[in-house]
């Protein structure tokens, strides 16, 4: 939102300009006014207006002197000079100063709007350039910190000042490890936006480190000085979780997990604890946040592995009935044993080996099956995935590229559903339930066939529709957002600008000028 300041010693002219500004489509957040340049300088130093409309001839300090002083004080503020005289020397000097435009009185609305739009474009360009530089700077810093963290965590006596410039020996560490499902998309830059907006007390490289550790897995580590005794880990997680869920629209609970460590004087231990907690998501199916206390019940219990030979036999014989009974027995054996994560991962790896030995490569490779079992939201999700995968394998061993394959038809049906219903609220989980298909299987299959995640595919469809409506030029931004499947106008504007480089309003104006992209 923008702030504009009107400076003119003639009240009726000043009020007339203010009236036009209030009716402007640019929706200024603040419209300030001043009767002279001296007061205007004082007001500008407090309010930092984005745009100033200034008369060139006023008692005391004139508009040109004011503009020169203002540019020294607020170099990013855009100035439009107003004059009752068509004096070329004034105009020339104003242009040399770097003002955006030079308007003659009486000011008509079209000329005023044109000058304001020119100012807004320059402001947006400046902000975009500054934001781009800041994003690059932070990305480089994250890369440096990630490399430093990798080295430090393997040392017996790490120097934590390489990660946290605020570190002193009596501080503590808190680690969070965020996992996001493959159907979701989140970048480290987006995570940075949320952290910066929510937690002003934490600064990257000072008392905060975060980076994408693996695809869709993010480490967040906080350094807590002895003065921060009131820090509450759950409140931090609450704010971040709520904010991210608004970013990733329609995300369902099983699609993300936070592993949260205890506060610890040893950063390495805190990080490993957070990661280990997160991996237990497959055993803690109903939890989005997992703490050390939540995983204490999972001991190194022994499990009956006899089902592995039955599983192997069902693969060899392609026996659907035997497969189903084996998978049920396997599920109950695991659920009743209180098996620890390492034990479950061992079973998972044995299953992968059997799939590699007795199934065609299309089964184990085409869907890029994960190497660790925590990528499944629960033990049942994994078992159900195996059933879906192997049932289709028993039916056909054709690769995904073969025309007429039911798997390709399934993805085509999902894409068609998206194209017909993109304006409504739904998730891939909803579609999986409608189709009676395992969610994880459908998620992996969709990405393999479409070459993009479900969320990215849906977002592109919605943004393309929004572009079409904006090109027409008669729709309000709020209506464009709703008709394109965005329930929140602010989120729509933010997403649209991130994708196109233009705000919806700027894009609409560009199209009206005949320069539509």
TrEMBL record:
Keyword hit for Amino-acid biosynthesis: no
Keyword Phosphoprotein set for record: yes
Residue ranges of domain HTH araC/xylS-type in the record: 412-510
A Pfam family annotated for this UniProt entry: Response_reg
GO cellular component labels: cytoplasm
UniProt modified residues of type 4-aspartylphosphate: 55
Residues annotated as domain Response regulatory: 3-120
Subcellular location: Cytoplasm
Function: May play the central regulatory role in sporulation. It may be an element of the effector pathway responsible for the activation of sporulation genes in response to nutritional stress. Spo0A may act in concert with spo0H (a sigma factor) to control the expression of some genes that are critical to the sporulation process.
Protein name per Swiss-Prot or TrEMBL: Stage 0 sporulation protein A homolog
Source organism of the structure: Enterocloster clostridioformis
Taxonomic placement: Bacteria, Bacillati, Bacillota, Clostridia, Lachnospirales
């Amino acid at each position: 939102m923008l702030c504009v300041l009107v400076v003119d010693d003639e009240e009726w002219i000043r009020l007339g300009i203010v009236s036009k500004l209030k009716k402007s489509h640019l929706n200024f957040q603040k419209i300030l006014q001043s009767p002279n340049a001296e007061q205007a300088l004082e007001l500008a130093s407090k309010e930092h207006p984005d745009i100033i409309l200034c008369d060139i001839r006023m008692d005391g300090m004139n508009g040109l002197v004011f503009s020169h002083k203002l540019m020294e004080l607020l170099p990013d503020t855009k100035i439009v000079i107003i004059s009752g005289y068509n004096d070329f020397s004034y105009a020339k000097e104003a242009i040399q100063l770097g003002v955006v435009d030079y308007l003659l009185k009486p000011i008509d609305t079209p000329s005023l709007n044109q000058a304001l739009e020119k100012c807004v474009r320059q402001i947006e360009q400046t902000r975009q350039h500054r934001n781009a530089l800041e994003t690059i700077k932070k990305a480089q810093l994250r890369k440096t910190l990630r490399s430093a963290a990798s080295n430090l965590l393997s040392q017996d006596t790490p120097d934590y000042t390489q990660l946290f410039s605020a570190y002193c020996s009596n501080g503590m560490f808190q680690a969070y490890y965020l996992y996001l499902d493959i159907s979701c998309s989140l970048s480290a830059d987006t995570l940075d936006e949320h952290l910066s907006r929510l937690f002003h007390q934490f600064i990257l490289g000072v008392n905060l480190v975060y980076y994408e550790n693996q695809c869709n897995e993010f480490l967040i580590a906080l350094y807590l000085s002895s003065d921060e005794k009131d820090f509450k880990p759950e409140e931090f997680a609450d704010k971040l979780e709520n904010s991210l869920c608004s970013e990733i629209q329609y995300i369902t609970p099983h699609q993300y997990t936070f592993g949260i460590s205890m506060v610890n004087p040893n950063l390495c231990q805190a990080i490993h604890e957070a990661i280990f907690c997160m991996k237990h998501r497959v055993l803690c199916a109903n939890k989005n946040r997992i703490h050390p206390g939540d995983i204490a019940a999972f001991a190194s219990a022994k499990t009956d592995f006899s089902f592995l030979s039955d599983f192997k036999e069902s693969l060899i014989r392609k026996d659907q009935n035997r497969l189903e009974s084996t998978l049920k027995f396997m599920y109950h054996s695991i659920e009743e044993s209180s098996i620890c994560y390492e034990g479950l991962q061992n079973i998972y790896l044995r299953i992968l080996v059997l799939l590699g030995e007795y199934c065609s490569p299309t089964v184990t490779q085409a869907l890029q099956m994960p190497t660790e079992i925590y990528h499944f939201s629960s033990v049942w999700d994994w078992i159900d995935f195996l059933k879906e995968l192997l049932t289709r394998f028993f039916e056909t061993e054709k690769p995904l590229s073969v025309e007429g394959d039911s798997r390709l038809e399934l993805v085509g049906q999902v894409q068609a559903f998206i194209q017909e219903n993109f304006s409504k609220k739904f998730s891939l989980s909803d579609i999986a339930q409608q189709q009676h298909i395992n969610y994880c299987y459908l998620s992996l299959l969709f990405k393999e066939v479409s070459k993009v995640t479900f969320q990215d595919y849906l977002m592109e469809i919605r943004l393309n529709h929004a572009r079409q409506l904006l090109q027409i030029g008669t729709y309000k931004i709020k209506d464009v957002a709703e008709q394109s499947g965005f329930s929140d106008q602010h989120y729509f504007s933010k997403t649209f600008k991130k994708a196109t480089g233009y705000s919806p309003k700027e894009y609409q104006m560009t199209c009206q000028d005949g320069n539509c992209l």
